[in-house]
Amino acid sequence: MTGAMQWYIRGVDAVNYRLGRIMMYGIFVLMGVLLWSSISKTFFLPSLWTLEMAQFIMVAYYMLGGPYSIQLGSNVRMDLLYGEWSARKKAWVDLFTVLFLIFYLGVLLYGAVSSTAYSLGYWGTEPFSFFGGLITGSEEIGRMERSSTAWRPYMWPVKTIMILGMFLMLLQCVSELFKDVLRIKGETI
């Protein structure tokens, strides 16, 4: 069992590490879009797409960089007591709290799948069967949701990125859970 945990940890950590390192440079893309927004508003006609595109880039930056942040342990912790505990006690507390995070991310992921199905024109109550139907050909994409701004972009791309980010964050949380189990057992990771 520990071999499977080690394999899972290495695989998920490798994917999230590489993606996180790539997403670090997303801040420069965001800065470029905001710089163009400022220049176009000052010297030319203002671009309609810049502020909303900046929001979409920020969503991708945050959601796809989140698993990397969890992996590095750079998320917010209450170090008042936690910093003085032994590694084993930290692992027990982390094991307990990551279960709440996994539940929370599961609920968010379900909501994101429902919202993405809605953005693709599905108004039913079974979003997972809708996506299964898209794959098999028994479902069709309906009238797609668009933003209510003047630019009116489709919403499904950013919602799909949110699903991917939440799914990767969920995988990383399970990896952290396995790391805590191995630490409690006294094994090296």
TrEMBL record:
It is a multi-pass membrane protein. One of its GO terms (molecular function) is transmembrane transporter activity. Its main location: membrane. It is found in: Cell inner membrane. Residues 30-181 form the Tripartite ATP-independent periplasmic transporters DctQ component domain. The keyword Ligase does not apply. GO terms for cellular component: plasma membrane. Keywords: Cell inner membrane, Cell membrane, Membrane, Transmembrane, Transmembrane helix, Transport. It comes from the Bacteria. The chain crosses the membrane at residues 21-39, 51-70, 91-113, 154-174. Pfam families: DctQ. Part of the tripartite ATP-independent periplasmic (TRAP) transport system. The complex comprises the extracytoplasmic solute receptor protein and the two transmembrane proteins. Belongs to the TRAP transporter small permease family. This is TRAP transporter small permease protein.
